Amino acid sequence: MNRRITHLIAKAALLLAIILVASCKRANVTDETTGKGLKSGINGQLSTSTLPFLKGVDLSYVNELEDNSVVYTEDGVAKDAYQIMHDHGANLVRLRLWHNPTWTTYSNLADVKISIQRAKTLNMKVLLDFHYSDTWTDPQQNQVPAAWLSVVNNTSVLADSLANYTTNVLTHLKNVNLLPDMVQIGNETNNNILVTDTSQLLPINWSRNVTLFNAGINAVATFNSTYSKSIKTVLHVAMDDNDVRNWMSSLTANGITNFDMLGLSYYPQWQRYDTNELGVLVADMLSLYGKQVLIAETGHIWTRNWDDSSINLMSQMAVGYPETPCAQLQKDFLIEVKKAVQNNGGAGVIAWEPAWVSAGNVTLWGVGSNWENVAFFDFNNALLKPGGVEYLSDNNVAVTFRVDMAGVSTANGVFITGDFTKNDAGNWQFFPMKQVGTSTIYTFRTFLNPGQTGAYYFLNDDAWTARETVPSACQGSWTDRAYTIGTSSSQNISYVWGSCTTF
Questions:
Q1: In the beta sheet, which residues pair with residue 161?
Q2: How far apart are CA 324 and CA 415, in angstroms?
């Protein structure tokens, strides 16, 4: 900790002591960055100016990884990670902010300013994620910053500290022309926030939580009003769909003031509802509460292999997906999430740290990455194509492969394999196809690129010996079927088993 930060924390502590002795309800806690104490704001309506549909990436690890000699590549050429995401269609970068972390030099305000500048240079919008902690917050932990520990049991003073800090950060960022477009008031705030230990996470004290949420929301509202800005506010939880509904109902019943978006974490590992159910939830939040849903975090594995000794956090495939991971299915999942949100009035989707590859950096859990099998890059830091990065594009074609199995045994299932099923070793895999009702038609949907060509075929068991025999008249490469993808938004490729007959 440098001398200036130590001096400012000491100054803040002295001010708090004087105010608490005087039994004053409001505290001008100084911000550790600017040293200025500002009063918290009043309730106010936030701007309703519109944003584009957000296609985002959280790049909070990139500065740290680059400092650990990571070089990202695309098509064999070294390339800036922000530039890669921008070039594929990203229009927003999400960045986490810790209050005063002493265990790392990253994700503090100085580091975040570097990241915001990188995003703004490429004209991408920024979502600043206030954790309101010196470390990670999530459903399992929400530790109050050390600087606020003495007021943790005085909700009104704690709320003032939160509001002042929010205002001071935004003011500082405004003064250096680095204002975010959106802010999160906390991160994955399922349970009680700003507590001293995990035993205090439950049961939820709704009155306290709402007071603290409102302090942040109103600080942003007042800042917007004062400086004619339109920064959006996001509240963020990580829950299954029915729990989200209950959380919103309880929040509203306890007097939450206006915020703009409901942020959700949506991961196959922990949120086990499918993308159709996600679409229903997005529509419900808009119709019941007037809140657009933002998928603040999502991701999907492309392999179950590891690139280091740090334990990977995710291994499960999405509900309804084959159990054989690959980069194509990572892409498919993220596109399905995007469509579920976009088609139901949601605000956007953000992939969580697609650049967190394995490197020599030390985390709280070891050396390397717990996420390299969810990143958009392979174990050589090369961009995966096909892969999750392509979800950022609006130029994907929904391709439905269909086969008519009339007169053919389907007792062992129906499968498809092809170049789009390749795993991380480059081997084709078997993807199960879904029966249409009780018909003899089986289908598999994936998202391919306009102009893409390749090979595939059908099987009636998950074994190479169960492949169909493709007539020479409609063979492509080797003895496989061939496909060519057009430019429309969707395409059906339909054949009768073992035949050139289409339907």
A1: none
A2: 13
Instruction: For Cα atoms 59, 120, 264, give the angle at the middle one, nearest 5 degrees.
Output: 45
Q: How far is CA 71 from CA 116, 356, 359, 375, 376, in A?
A: 20, 12, 10, 14, 14
Give 346-397 as a DSSP string: --EEEES-TT----S-EETTEES-S-TTTSSB-TTSBBPSSSGGGGG-S--E
Confidence check: pLDDT of 46 > 80: no
Please give the average per-residue pLDDT across 153-162, as a whole number. 98
Residues in the chain: 503
Selected catalytic residue, list 32, 74, 188, 353: 188
Other CB atoms within a 10 A radius of the CB of residue 398 amount to 17
Among 65, 137, 135, 63, which Cα is nearest to 100's?
A: 135
3 state SS of 114: helix
The CATH code for residues 397-496 is: 2.60.40.10
pLDDT digits (tens, 9 = 90+) for 167-189: 999 999 999 999 999 999 999 99
Could you tell me the residue ranges of all domains in the chain? Answer: 1-52+91-259, 397-496
Measure CA 54 to chain center: 11
Band (477; pLDDT cuts 50, 70, 90): confident
Q: Is the pLDDT of residue 31 over 90?
A: no
The span from the CA of 376 to the CA of 390, in Å, is 9
> pLDDT of 57-116, one tens digit each?
999 999 999 999 999 999 999 999 999 999 999 999 999 999 999 999 999 999 999 999
Of 32, 74, 297, 372, the catalytic one is 297
Q: What is the pLDDT of residues 399-440, one digit of tens each?
A: 999 999 999 999 999 999 999 999 999 999 999 999 999 999
Gyration radius from the chain CA atoms: 25
Q: Over the chain, what is the mean pLDDT?
A: 91
Identify whether the C-beta of residue 134 lies closer than 8 Å to the C-beta of residue 140: no
188 catalytically annotated: yes
Q: Quote the distance between the C-alpha of residue 69 and its chain's center.
A: 25
Q: Residue 42's CB: how many other CB atoms inside 10 A? A: 11
Instruction: Specify the CATH number for 1-52+91-259; select among 3.30.360.10, 3.20.20.80, 3.90.550.10, 3.30.70.600.
Output: 3.20.20.80
How does residue 49 score in pLDDT terms, banded at 50, 70 and 90? low
Given the DSSP bridges, would you call strands 54-58 and 73-74 parallel, antiparallel or unpaired? unpaired
Model confidence, pTM: 0.90
Which token pair is 307? 């690139």
Active site residue 297: yes
Spatial contact of 467 and 478, defined as CB atoms under 8 Å apart: no
Nearest to 49 by CA among 231, 227, 171: 231
